[in-house]
Amino acid sequence: MVFFRLLLLWIGLLGIIIAGCAQKKVTDRQPAWSKESGLATSGNFRAVALSDLDNDGNMDVIGGSSFPGTVAIWYGDGAGGMSAPQYLPFTGDVRSIAVADFDENGLKDIVLCVQRESSGIMVWLNQPERRWVRGVSPIEIHSYEGVKTADVNGDGHMDIIAANITSDIQGGIQVWLGDGKGAWPVESGPTITGVYMDVALADFNHDGFLDLAAAGWGIDGALRVWL
Question: What HEC string does the chain produce?
């Protein structure tokens, strides 16, 4: 009887050891990466975003560059391949890119911060058959470094949130509330002063509304949160 009990105990321990080894083998597995595939053979790219822009179920790549200074779009084929780049017809130093459906036609649009030849916040509206038209810009002056999109006020329409680096007295965090038609009738935001490099959104206090966290720079630089 003692022998059988010891045998069962040994079998149980052996099973635990085998299971642990199998688990370790799975968790220790390293990801495999393909060879590098360059979408652009040259250029200084600062911003990148991913989205299914043409609703074909495949992810596309949007890149913003300082040189040549525009936005390039590569449409994915779902097998790792990409189309030739499609360039939006403007020039400027693109600092940040975000995507959202601003005019609610079912296609994701592009918003970007741009400096140098162009200024402010630029919006491009996505049309069927991979066509793009210039949308209404919430602002065409000042220098912005980071841009995000979210439904800040819970009205079902996507809004634009941007970090302003113009100066300590002409900076801040600006919020433009969208009307669902591609226009921005209301401008708000927690502050209009200070240099800010980036902004992020989350519901920190669980009240159902998005809050803001921003990265400040310069004399009064700090990480700040507004509920």
Answer: CHHHHHHHHHHHHHHHHHHHHHHHHHHCCCCCCCCCCCCCCCCEEEEEEEECCCCCCCCEEEEEEEECCCEEEECECCCCCECCCEECCCCCEEEEEEEECCCCCCCCEEEEEEECCCCCEEEEEEEHHHEEEECCCCECCCCEEEEEEECCCCCCCCEEEEEECCCCCCCEEEEEECCCCCCCCEEEEEECCCEEEEEEEECCCCCCCCEEEEEEECCCCCEEEEC
